[in-house]
Amino acid sequence: MNGQYIVTTLEKIFTWITRLAAINLLWVWYTMMGLIAGGIFPATLTVLKICRKWIMGEKEVPIWSTFKEEYRRDFGQANLAGWTLTLAGMILYFNYLAIKSIGDMSIVVHVAFYLLILFYLNLVVWSFPQLAHYEGKLAQLFKNAVILGFGRFHYTVGITAYVFIVLYFSLKFPGLLPFFTVSLAGLGWAWLSMNLFKKLDVKTNQPLLLERVNKNDFEYQQSKNGDRQVV
User: What is the largest distance, in Å, between two alpha-carbon atoms of the chain?
Assistant: First the structure.
C-alpha cells in the first residue's frame, strides 16, 4: 500500500515536472519564433492560458497543439497589450531620469510619480491574467486591472513577490532559466489570479458562470466560447 502510494506520488511529481519543462521550452521556442520582440508577449499569455486550464481541472490538455493554437490566436492582442505596457514603462523610466537629474523637487512631484508607478504595477500584474481568462476590449481590461489592483492590493503584492522570488532563485541557479522559470512564475501568477476570479464568481452563487458581480467590482458576461466577457 505504502509502496503503491510512493510510486503514484513520484509519477505525479515527474508528470508535473515534465509539463512545466515543456511549456517553458515552448515559451523559449515561440519567443524566438517571434524574433523575441514579437513573440515574448503572446508566448507569455499562452503560458498563462495553459496554466489556467490546469487550475480549472483540464489536467490532460494537449500542451503542444494547445500552445500553438493559443499563440496564434492571441498574437495580435498580446503584442498590443505588451508593447503598450512596455512603452508606458519606458516613459516612466525617462521621467524618473528627468526627476533624478533635476534634483530638488517638490514632494508632490515625488508622491505623484510613485502613485503612477503603483498604477503601472497594477496594469502589469493584472492585464495578462485577464487576457488569459476573459474576452474584452483592451481599454476595459486596463481599467479593470487598476480597479482590481487597488481593490485587492494584497493579491497584487503577493503576485509581485512570488514572481520576484522565482526570478531571484532562477538568477541564483541559472539552470532553472530554460526549463522552469517562466512556467513556475506563470503557474503561481495564474493560480493567485484565478483564486481571486473564483471568489468574485462566488459572490453571485454561480461559480464559473458569472454574468455580473457587485457594482464595485467588474461586470462580466459569459461569452459564447465558455469564457467570460468584460462589458
Answer: 71
